[in-house]
Amino acid sequence: MRCAECKGRGMCGLPRCPITSRFHAQLRAKPSDHYMGGAPAVFIGSYGYPKVSGGPLMTGDLNDPPAWVAQGMTIDDIVGLRARTIRGTSDTGRLTGSLQEIALSSSPLDVEVRFTKPVGFDLRFDGTVAPVGLSGAIRKMDVLDNARVDRAVDRITADSDLGAVEACTLLHDSAIDVYRISELLTTGLLGRKRHIVPTRWAITAVDDMVSTRLKKEIVRMPPLEEYRVFCAEIYGNRIVCILAPGDWRYEMIEIWGRQSLWGGETEAIVADGEGLKKRGYSPIAGAYYSARLAVAEYLESIRRSARVVLIRSVSSDYWAPLGTWVIREATRNAMKNSPVVCATLDEAIAAASRLAGFSHWLGHSRLIPQMKTQKTLFDFSG
Amino acid sequence: MLKATIDAEIFRESIDAIAALVTECRLHTEEDMLVTRAVDTANVAMVSLELKSTAFDAYSATAGELGLDIAKMKNILGMMGRGDALTLNLLDEERKLELAFKGYKYSITLLDASTIRKDPSPPTIELPGKAVISGSALNNAIKAAAVISDKIALGIDPDAMTFYMEAEGDTDHIKLALGEDELVALNPVGARSLFSLDYLKDMGKVMAKADEVEVNLGVDHPVKFAFDIADGNGRVEYLLAPRIEAD
Description:
Chain B: Sliding clamp subunit that acts as a moving platform for DNA processing. Responsible for tethering the catalytic subunit of DNA polymerase and other proteins to DNA during high-speed replication. Chain A is α+β, with helices and mostly antiparallel strands. Chain A has twelve helices and 13 strands.
């Protein structure tokens, strides 16, 4: 398996991922054994599942990726911000109640935490979750505020006869963003049989559940009339998206350029796609589902079905893996920009190559040749 | 108006044949049969189905049209077993279809037929080549090709007197040629067209249950598969547009 497919999940068998451990930057943090302040989110690790450990993320700043992008923070700003964040760890049973309260609240709660020893610097990156710099084992934790809970969140989390899939789609329908929904899922507040879920799994699970449902609605909508090509770039991640008239098909081609994070000496290209049903987990991992969510949200908003070819090209500017939210926000930004409208597939391909800056992605697409060669029954009824 | 009783297995067979291509359709009730014709969203494949009144244990209907959520029907029919008698009762005013079997009574809200795509008119095409083959052999060939490729060529070689299927993967190649002995019938006119396995796989699962499938082929033309359901009291036709290889 190539680095571009594993993305730090440790499939190579080395004790630490040689790529993520490059970022053991130094940080001068005053070693302190207590913390009092905001806890905007919860983090549950996946190590040792089902006996996982986790706790609150403690920082005075917001844990709100769309806001980071909107404020124009650079990749260095974000890594710096996250390096100051403390990840509390504890076995989850003891803290579940407090963690659920943090997850339920629509605004960050203040907590008071005592650690077993002063917090240590331990900057960890993984492909799915935003990085966190400090960690400390929790001895005692108190939540100081009362949670402010949205009405929809309150209603849905209180219903223990509602399956997790329906719960996620209902929350999304109530204009609760996937960032909040994954918080609820990770702390075990959704579904019939509730469990603490590792955060990186919860993020992708929510992307998948919400977009699979959107997909089922999109399939019933009339097809798009023309070809549209969208483009946007954040943190060295350029997203180029072709929408073509037709039934729902989705294909993503991910290109890690030379000297980019998971690319190494040569370029690494991973492609994956789906029709109505998706079999198995995508080799592109969480990014596949995050991008699919953003495209599905757009198609649902314009009430059209389409075939989607999405190219993500990553340059060396993306020097630290920030999490799949980068792809989600980059794709959402792309879909907000006004598209290049084309009359034919060939024009759309040319426009996409121009926007992406190269054209060899085409050789990795299975959907494009299919669209080019597949005739319709109308072609024969003349 | 529709009031009919049918073996659940036969009805399920009919719904499965439609479900291979579309998730909803307009079902027409006529005095002596049920008929439907639908194309998929991309206009690549078409299904036509007729189920004669003789397939039913009891049947009375007047001409009408109802919008059927095929995906939902498929889930409901999954509960029924072979030999269960299923009673269909259309409640016109309420736009509901009542399905009764073994004491269960489902009442399904119908879709507004005007929101479903109009019935397509079938293209008028000449497909001179013809082979008749068992459904399971056809399905097996489709499954074998799907392992290595996403497209398959179907053709007839008039010199060798064979019906053949051929698939080309990135690195692999598979060919199956069936002579007259292995076919039920063959009309040896040269034909060859390329098809997407995405569609064929779903059709193949349905055709696997048919004893005989009539395959009509041309050169770079659509393929037509026709086969009986409900012990000859119904017939299904699939039409699939080809892929034309880029040069």
